[in-house]
Amino acid sequence: MTSQWEAALEALRNGECVAVLDGEEREGETDLFFPAASLSPASLRLLRTQAGGEMYMSVGHEVASAFGLPYIGNVLALTEVSAKFPVFQYMEKSKGEMCQGSCSVGVSLDHRTTKTGAPDVERSYTCRRLAELFQEVKEMETSVDASQRRFGEEFHTPGHIFLCVENGKGLSVRTGHTELSIALANAAGVTPVMVGCVMLSNDGDDFGALRPAPARAWAASRNIPFLTGSEIVKHVLG
Amino acid sequence: MTSQWEAALEALRNGECVAVLDGEEREGETDLFFPAASLSPASLRLLRTQAGGEMYMSVGHEVASAFGLPYIGNVLALTEVSAKFPVFQYMEKSKGEMCQGSCSVGVSLDHRTTKTGAPDVERSYTCRRLAELFQEVKEMETSVDASQRRFGEEFHTPGHIFLCVENGKGLSVRTGHTELSIALANAAGVTPVMVGCVMLSNDGDDFGALRPAPARAWAASRNIPFLTGSEIVKHVLG
């Protein structure tokens, strides 16, 4: 019998969906993920209709490094920014276990060829191209400056895709959905760019995240592999 | 017979939804809007299940001014930002009619009391509190610095609510959904903070924005007022 771990890696290699619960003691949220490299408009429609939360793209640390993509928090903390826009002196991200001293949020972007950037066909193209461009510059072994230029030729900011950037030490430092999804991509051998969306409740007066039991049942009913953060950590870190 | 314009203003005063098509020659997208001041978790669920696109909060120019909230493009264009993070030298927003030389996108935020910030109950609270806080500082006629401090005591960045900021000259300069929704709020006499979401197609192989005819039919079937950008401009500017 195939384990959920093996089923998840196989699903990602086939461009299919996996479900990841970070942990009931952490966020307690289940996010669905597709690999960006083969993302279809239909996959994006599934994320927004079946999961429903904010859509984001997690990128591996090596992807952010290749293109020089920062955490937005490090941009807003610059002296000139807080001097010119003092509100940022007061808006520093709250510390807590969800951020663990830093935060994964990067910039937003759209591919320059999109019209508004919002529809499934446009957002899925933006995601696919970012994954493809990373493979292209990786194979060319080009300089970071040349990679940044190519990045800017294709993408502008702000846009409709919000990046979450893996920290440089992966799961050993942070076990958020960003790190968990990139660890899965690396284990599956697919490009470390993943498109995720948190599952929300559509049930009556429960307006929170979808609870772990119904999330697990939903995934089982669709043959979508379901993993918890601790299962992923155990497989990756041993 | 009540006109769509009067029905829209009445809906907003009651905390209900309106639909706005910017124009078939512009984006050709229909966005649903609720007034933020009375936003419920159920309203937010309706936006994400019935509209489906990126959710955002449009704020009037006076709201952004009261709290010193900038366009993110003006932050990323600062010398220190582009010197430290050169990728921004290359990622300048494409010029085009959707941006008309500038862009409406501001910062993202969550209320500090939220856990992850993502679920409907948390996002709706973030939106309501921003609208309430604007009314509070407006009535107190406090200084911009004091307002910014109070803003930072309640909200941190980055977060799950993405702001779109009305330009200072409203509909006379730009007729995007940001300006259209704020013009409606002002006409209805509600706090100029609106929560919007673009309607996307869920129909077969059409992965674009929901077309104007089915958007109009959907609104009619639910008794939701439907206005076009040119109708709003005509009512507001005469």
Automatic annotation (TrEMBL), chains A, B:
<keyword id="KW-0479">Metal-binding</keyword>
<dbReference type="InterPro" id="IPR000422">
    <property type="entry name" value="DHBP_synthase_RibB"/>
</dbReference>
<keyword id="KW-0460">Magnesium</keyword>
<keyword id="KW-0686">Riboflavin biosynthesis</keyword>
<keyword id="KW-0464">Manganese</keyword>
<dbReference type="GO" id="GO:0046872">
    <property type="term" value="F:metal ion binding"/>
</dbReference>
<dbReference type="InterPro" id="IPR017945">
    <property type="entry name" value="DHBP_synth_RibB-like_a/b_dom"/>
</dbReference>
<dbReference type="GO" id="GO:0009231">
    <property type="term" value="P:riboflavin biosynthetic process"/>
</dbReference>
<dbReference type="GO" id="GO:0008686">
    <property type="term" value="F:3,4-dihydroxy-2-butanone-4-phosphate synthase activity"/>
</dbReference>
<comment type="similarity">
    <text>In the C-terminal section; belongs to the GTP cyclohydrolase II family.</text>
</comment>
<keyword id="KW-0456">Lyase</keyword>
<comment type="pathway">
    <text>Cofactor biosynthesis; riboflavin biosynthesis.</text>
</comment>
<dbReference type="Pfam" id="PF00926">
    <property type="entry name" value="DHBP_synthase"/>
</dbReference>
<protein>
    <recommendedName>
        <fullName>3,4-dihydroxy-2-butanone-4-phosphate synthase</fullName>
    </recommendedName>
</protein>
<dbReference type="GO" id="GO:0005829">
    <property type="term" value="C:cytosol"/>
</dbReference>
